[in-house]
Amino acid sequence: MTRPHSSPATSPTGSLPSDVIAFPTEEDEGTSSRAGAKPLHHEVLATVRDLIIHNELAPGKRLNERILCERLKVSRTPLREALKVLSHEGLVELLPNRGARVVKLTPEDVRHLFEILGALESLAGRLACQHITEAEICEIKAVHYHMQAQFIRCDLPDYFRDNQEIHKRIVAAARNPVLITMYENLNCRLLRARYLASQTDRERWAAAMREHELIIDALSRRCADELAELLQQHLNHKYEAVCRHL
């Protein structure tokens, strides 16, 4: 199975030490792009997104371009490109002539987002049971086993990436581009809240692992109604955990 592109290395607590961040230079970007590597601003995007999700850039915090550029060792051009994408994802708010700041969700925002996301995941589960291939099921199982290992190690950042990868693959298996786009747009806005709820609620983390076992089993048997219900319940439980955290 081809593993998804990894974000820059993190510490076991989710911190991202500045001394381990290494990006290609802007002079190298054209060469690396021709060689098949991702453009520089994609690397910056992944790193800043992780900083927001891991709460190193807190909700409502103004983003100082100079400080971020020094930390990431890049110029303002790739950083600003990354901030535009993060604005589209709903993680950053661009302020006219005043830079940008991290978006702060209200409890009502979170409730509305979870309501729609639950409906989308439930529908995706039903459609995935119709369209998913045996090879795709095997790939999802492989990610699931890797996620179990991260749970045992208490490696929340890697566990969280695998968790999200499983859900993304189930949604992708629905073979509905409209559903996929809506899911990606909404899910990005909830990543930080979902990550922090897992970080502060060990019981919920363990329960989520058990729920994933049931989800994988229902998907393997292509039981559409069962899978749809499990995905809805899984998200409801996550919402309850997020509310306790908020």
Note the topology.
Blueprint: H1 26-34, H2 40-53, E1 62-63, H3 65-72, H4 76-88, E2 92-95, E3 99-102, H5 107-131, H6 134-153, H7 156-172, H8 177-200, H9 202-220, H10 224-245
Antiparallel strand pairs: 1-3, 2-3
Account of the protein in words:
The chain is mainly alpha-helical. It has 2 domains: 85 residues, Arc Repressor Mutant, subunit A, CATH 1.10.10; 139 residues, Up-down Bundle (Four Helix Bundle (Hemerythrin (Met), subunit A)). Helix content is 70%, strand content 4%. It has 10 helices and 3 strands; from the N terminus they run H-H-E-H-H-E-E-H-H-H-H-H-H. A 3-stranded antiparallel beta sheet has the order 1-3-2. Strand 2 and strand 3 form a beta hairpin. Helix 2 crosses helix 4, helix 6 runs antiparallel to helix 9 and helix 7 packs antiparallel against helix 8. The relative contact order is 0.12. The N terminus is likely disordered.
CATH topology-level name of the largest domain: Four Helix Bundle (Hemerythrin (Met), subunit A)
The averaged pLDDT comes out at 86
- The whole-angstrom Rg is 18 Å
Order of helices and strands: HHEHHEEHHHHHH
- CATH architecture annotation of the largest domain: Up-down Bundle
Identify the quaternary structure here.
Answer: single chain
Q: Runs with pLDDT <50, length 5+?
A: 1-36
Q: State the secondary-structure class.
A: mainly alpha
Return the CATH class of the largest domain: Mainly Alpha
Proportion of residues in extended strands: under 5%
> Helix amount, in percent?
55-70%
Tally of strands:
3
Largest sheet: 3 strands, antiparallel
